[in-house]
Amino acid sequence: MSEATLPYAGSLPARLLRLYGGLALYGGGIGLQVRSGLGNNPWDAFHQGLALRAGLSIGTVIIAVGALVMLLWIPLRQRPGVGTISNVIFVGLFADAAIMLLPTPGHWTLSWLYLLLAVVSIALATTLYISAGMGPGPRDGLMTGLMRLGLSVRLGRFLIEISVLAVGWLLGGTVGVGTVVFAVAIGPLTQLFGRWFPLETPARADGSRPAE
């Protein structure tokens, strides 16, 4: 049996639960961070800035940008999975729902609570989504494609995220202390949650697993 056809560990229903639970939690985290007013992560500062200029909801822009980013996969020879398509559609929908339902904080303590919950939610959501093993998100797939061209993932992520952050800020997206908190905390938290939900990569024929 080839590596490509070997199954991921865990039943399909369990993987789907992690996938769509992760997407819902990710959208909710975006809504919390936007509602906090303390500063968005780079991509969502960009999404918010575009939404303000275009008169659209942030979720609509998230969906549109995700679809456009996937077009960049074509020259990079990236293949989407069920998780990729679901990411494009559902994260934006869940983000809009959260923004609509969450009350605007009336005090700085609630703003900070929103921010902290947002970072924890997005870190956990990322782990759940990736551990489902059903395809990368459109932006993560872009990183993978750039790696194949010889660009390091750190440099590629830095260049893209600093660019979208700058454009988002110029367009009116909220950039602030929350942006810094997200940048500092998201990596360690995702790594922590990864101990609870190990990333499931398919085994090779000899029983070993490819490096992430």
Automatic annotation (TrEMBL):
Membrane as UniProt keyword: yes
Keyword Transmembrane helix appears in the UniProt entry: yes
Pfam entry (one): DUF6198
The organism's place on the tree of life at top rank: Bacteria
Membrane-spanning segments: 16-34, 54-76, 88-106, 112-137, 158-186
InterPro entries in alphabetical order: YczE/YyaS-like (IPR038750)
Keywords assigned by UniProt, alphabetized: Membrane, Transmembrane, Transmembrane helix
Protein name per UniProt: YitT family protein
Species whose genome carries this gene: Nonomuraea indica
